[in-house]
Predict the structure.
Amino acid sequence: MKVLKKIVPALAVFLTALSSSAQIKDTLNAPKPVLPGVFADPHIAAFGDTFYLYPTTDGTEGWMSTYFTCWSSKNLVDWKNEGTILDLPKDLTWAKERAWAPAIAEKNGKYYYYFSADVNIGVAVADKPTGPFKDALGKPLVPKGALKGQMIDPMAFVDDDGSAYLYWGQGNCNIVKLNDDMVSYDPAKIISIKPKGYNEGSFVFKRNGKYYLMWSEFDTRDPRYSVAYATADSPMGPFTKAELNPVLKGRGVVKGAGHHSVVKVPGKDEWYIAYHRFKIPGGNGYNRETSISPMRFDKKGNILPVDVFETPKNVKVKIVKAFNK
């Protein structure tokens, strides 16, 4: 009887471990996308106690979308459609289609929305993360043909000292420091780099004093589409590509995992990566869906490979109010 009592718990532990192992190795049943329908190039951000997603509206060959939407969540699991926040035909005079790959940044109580429109980069501004956003310039912030490659996929990073930087480009990664108004810069100070494997979709964040530049490799229509990264001591580089790459790629039924963004849970060293994948089933480079997975680091600050079959578990932001004594 004593032997049996010892065997039963051990057997239970073994079966649990075996079950967990089977779940990890199951590449035929991917988790559901976080947004209903087809959305790509998701930019994720946290403002206050709320998370926001700003994606490309997908589903047309040639990526001919004409508008952008915003989605909000209190837990990274349940998402609310906040509606259309920028409609190119209605809100712009200089572009009507190809609404792609937006990004958002907050500074001085305003929200600046950077976006691709007909292979130009524009910027709109609002008083709230959910808009409505208004074209800030009445013309592109970065016009097509300004540099080599396509003028698409903007990303704005605001450093701890309030300095802001713009990253963009397909074919090359272009970097420039924005002026304090967030809608202008000195063209003479643009630098262009091309890390090995770089194609598009740059994203920058800072952790423990280190700057991480991430990007997508291959083409979004390619099942091998994936995400790699490099690090630097300055937001403008020079960046050194990490040895362990890519850190995000498809597996099993998950194809074309890329064009990502990263969010830190306010007040915690807890990180999540939003990205798109081919729609499951039957997706392709024009029919993509949005996913979110945890993103972790080792003790040296290296990004660990992301498990595209792992999803957030009811993540909430706790706002700590300061009281005067």
